[in-house]
Amino acid sequence: MSMGDRPYKIVIGLEVHVQLLTESKLFCGCSTKFGAPPNTQTCPVCIGMPGVLPVMNRKAFELAVKTGLALNGEIARFSKWDRKNYYYPDLPKGYQISQYDLPICRGGYLDIPAEDGEGTRRIGIIRVHLEEDAGKSMHDEKAGRADSRIDLNRAGTPLLEIVTKPDLHSPTEAKTFLTELKLLLNYLEVSDCNMQEGSLRVDANINLHIPTDDGGHVATPIVEVKNMNSFRAVERALTYEAQRQYEAFLETGHKLGDVPKQTRGWDEDAQITRPQRSKEESSDYRYFPEPDLVPVTITEEELERIRATLGELPAEIRRRLQTTYQITAYDSDVIVNQGRAFVDYYCRLAQGCGDGKMAANWVQQDVLRTLNERQWTIAQFPVSADNLAELLRKVRAGELDTAKARMVFAEMVEQRCSAAEAVQRLGIVQVDEGELRRLCEELVAANPRVVAEVKAGKDKAIGSLVGQAKKRNPNVNPARVKEICLELIQRQA
Amino acid sequence: MTLTRQEIEKVAFLARLILTPEELDEMTGQLGRVLEYMALLNEVDTEGVEPLAHAVEFANVFREDHVEKSLDREVALANAPHRDDECYLVPAVLGDV
Ligand SMILES: [Zn+2]
Hints:
The structure holds two protein chains of two kinds.
Chain A: E1 9-19, E2 56-57, H1 58-70, E3 74-75, E4 78-79, E5 82-85, E6 95-98, E7 105-106, E8 109-113, E9 120-132, E10 136-138, E11 147-151, E12 158-164, H2 171-188, E13 200-211, E14 217-219, E15 223-226, H3 231-252, E16 262-267, E17 272-275, E18 288-289, E19 296-297, H4 300-307, H5 314-325, H6 329-337, H7 340-353, H8 356-374, H9 385-396, H10 402-415, H11 419-425, H12 433-446, H13 448-455, H14 462-472, H15 478-492
Parallel strand pairs in A: 15-16
Antiparallel strand pairs in A: 1-12, 1-13, 3-7, 4-19, 5-6, 5-18, 7-9, 8-9, 9-12, 10-11, 13-14, 13-15, 16-17
Chain B: H1 5-14, H2 21-39, E1 62-63, H3 73-77, E2 88-91
The structure holds zinc ion (ZN).
Zinc ion binds at residues 25, 28, 30, 42-43, 45-46, 156 of chain A.
């Protein structure tokens, strides 16, 4: 991997936590719905009362397996639960139920679009495991309160932790990975990955490889960066942190191993990373097997049943759209990013109108713009793919020019009607081909000067004939008039 | 296998226990004896024996993903030493956002 114009190579690994799309928590029946009033979604299990027994949510397990399969990982035929012990006010039991040595999935990879736009880069996955979330502590420093307030609604919510290999070599690549992962998890219906609601959180481990004179390199100490609240924040925080590490290295000469691993938090307002106190003095979490939960096994049959629910994944769909409908990588990307229902709409439209490129232009411009303006999803969009295909066929047949087609499209959206009905409502009278031809013949005969100019190579002169045609009959298709007139003039030659 | 006083200090810190010097000495001895007792197990030949993940010999106890009624907030907060109308109150958690 190239260093670009930096005097060092950046090495990044990510730890991503996503909240699973379950109705209830990982080990109890409390709701996982976001935004409920504080402490209204808790029970003795998730607030850690003595003598309770957690019971595993089957759907959470299946979603974890689904993710592991989609990431090409090795699903453990036998996995178990462990307690990760630490004290924090938002962790009522004093331990988090997690997976230590037998995670649900090991290995795997995700292919992401390469930075240069050519092909893909394969990013390795180390492991995927399930664990429960902690609660939320709130402290209003401005109000000068002495206490923190604890809301345990989130405690016990199922999380999937996905850990990548240190295969990412630029802040942009880290952002691209997250974007691709989010898209995949959306398609799998594993997580909505909404960062605002905390259903996707990401920490990054980053250090630098600085070339040395002997052709080798020296590695800087690894820093864990936390508190990044958007994909853009990830990109910025890592860009800042890489340069900070380079400058710190020039100043102190500290190499990997010289100092303990540091945790730093991204300060969005100041756009810098700051040292953070880590939760534990060391990473001594004293893991031990969770006695309250039995292990989980999975058979080949169950694995195959879950594999069958994966559906077509974003990377495959992009490839299919490009080969089947002859559209560009960029176009296929825009369409796939809108989700599975939008892809289905596009495919039906492309088949119905017979022109994949034209269909791609219409969905990306007119359809997407309308969806954005009205805040609709594609499911709410009143023009069916079949109806829009009918409109595009009229454009292809020369019955409507683009400007008129846009008017018809707007009418179809407003009236929720077919293309034919919208054409009729707008009073667009279709000019018969024979009539159009007679009109062009008259114009060519009546304008010898224009004809001479066109023959002399000034194609632009034809515009005057188109203008006259529109004046005599506003319903004519200007593009078709131009075509016929040019054809007539060329035949004269 | 014995424990050092430093190890006991660290474990006490991780468990958020404050021990007096006398208690530290006492714990160093007591926990050390527990570990010595456990060390007996190391004498058993476990060659070729599968590690046991759980003392109960079955697996796959699941519940379906259905929402059940949660505790009334008043009930949930009832035993909290400090609380307001909505939340548990704890000494300020600072420095870690
Ligand atoms: Zn609960």
